[in-house]
Amino acid sequence: MFVIEDELKKLPDQPGVYIMHDKNDTIIYIGKAVSLTKRVHQYFQASHNEGIKKNQMVKQIVRFEYIVTDSELEALVLECNLIKEHRPKYNTMLRDDKTYPYIKVTLGEDFPRVLFSRMMKKDKSRYFGPYTSAGAVKDSIDLLNKLYGLRTCSRVLPRDIGKQRPCLNYHIKQCNAPCQGYVSKEEYRKRVEQAVKFLNGEYQPVMKELTEKMNAASQEMEYEKAMEYRDLLNSVKQIAQKQKITHSDGEDKDVIGVSKDGEDAVVQVFFIRGGKLIGREHFYVNVAGEDKRSQILSVFIKQYYGGTPVIPKTIMLPLPIEEKEVLEEWLTNKRGQKVHIKIPQRGQKEKLVELAVRNAHLVLSQDKEKIKREEGRTIGAMKEIANLLSLPSILRVEAYDISNISGFQSVGSMVVYEKGKPCRSDYRKFRLKTVKGPDDYASMHEVLTRRFQHGMKEKETLKEKELDENYGSFTKFPDLIMMDGGRGQVNIALQVLDELHLNIPVCGMVKDDNHRTRGLYFNNVEIPIDRGSEGFKLITRIQDEAHRFAIEYHRSLRSKGQVHSVLDDIPGIGASRRKALMMRYSSLDAIRLASIEELAATPSMNIQAAEAVYKYFHTVDGE
Q1: Are residues 186 and 325 in the same domain?
Q2: How many domains does the chain have?
Q3: Are 298 and 275 within one domain?
Q4: What range defines the domain where residue 36 resides?
Q5: CB 69 within 8 A of CB 88
Q6: What is the pLDDT of residues 218-273, one digit of tens each?
Q7: What are phi and psi of 152, to 5 degrees?
Q8: Could you give phi then psi for residue 380, rounded to 5 degrees?
Q9: First to last CA, the chain
Q10: What is the pTM of this model?
């Protein structure tokens, strides 16, 4: 048995990583320490305050384990790896787990290619990036291949030279076909070197060359070729204009800013490569209310640079961090060259950091506004509906719909909205078992009965097993049932609830003559609703979703041949006769009312088939 007080006495006064477990043996926190015994003891001292989040975590600790390392740096590396692997609940975590695109030039090949890559390996290739837009990377690669006639195929050259015909790119003059030996290795290499210079930001030689070629083609009245050069020139100009010189030293830097509001934080990173700002990206971080900005920056550096292959020479921050020296050492080891973490105090560098902070704050404030708007569309809309119906609150809504196409077996759908958002994991489909023909009221009675009987039985089973009441989606009963219709549909639902001795509010989504929702039918009264309100918009979304879900289910079953027309049950009526009947008569009711002579006059039908159809319907009707 693990006794925390006893185990604390065994902790060594050495650097390492400690791992906290809860009662389910789930890892809930991972941390590093210069001294394991001093750091872990602090969590369990009554006088020591770790903040609200950590204090909640400590209450859940049932056991801990630790790994001793030789240095604080080793502990840092191990901590990063373990956090990335287990993603513990109480560690400050990056919400974004992204990989960024790079441009890869395969210089290790005799005939190199320019490729799109999301990872950087230790090979003979040269990588450029990271870039924030995959689309921009692909556009740049296409441009380079067109400019320099580089190959895009995966053939192994020179081994495969001449073994296959040249591809389409050669015929449209976008590749010089090294696969056929049409260009020498030396000449091809020169083209690749030019592409590398382009990626390093040397645009002027390319622009000058394209301008000269465009003018020459125009003078020789080769206007199509001149237009091609013009388009390429415009593409190069666009790329060149996107680059912003930030400093004349030409260094690779990452400029990092952070903004925090409560338990939300955003980190903004400017990527500067070769002295040029090539892009920026922001990252959302889950934090505790008491976390300081310096702590957020330390966590971000560990998690972000622990996962990205490109580490710049300099990382600029807006404020000092506690682990600066050990982080510099760790980053230096990962990069293979010295990495500096700097906090600029004046000049252009300070302005860049301020710009990153300002952008982080802007993203966070915009995100807050977005969340507020989203809450208005969801939770706020639910409150509007609750107020409209004089209900205390609505968290969960269930809506039902029936789908059938004149004679095809009916199917039912149940969609669920919680806090104004669709809860798709709780959606359910029903194939009608007891209803014959297109009877929406009877179909709805069966669907609702099956749904709530299932939930009641599930609840009873769960009580016997002493399990959580929320286990199983059918056990969650709604705060409101919405029916796709008016009085008739509402009365069916109320009848089912009365039969099952359940008390759940039911309203109908009433449509006008144009099949648009005009109001709600509740407690025998039609309640008008403002068409511009968020509550009305949510009602129409729920109605549309129930309708869509039912139709899609019905369509999928039909496509599998699992739902068929009742005409298929009549002996002698195959696909061609069924189709002919459905084309001549608008509905099954029209077929039912037709005489034998009228049925026999239908194309593809004969007297025997007509008698079979007539007999089937009139037997079913009990005549």
Answers
A1: no
A2: 5
A3: yes
A4: 4-91
A5: no
A6: 888 888 888 888 887 877 776 665 544 444 456 788 999 999 988 788 898 888 87
A7: -120, -5
A8: -60, -40
A9: 79
A10: 0.44
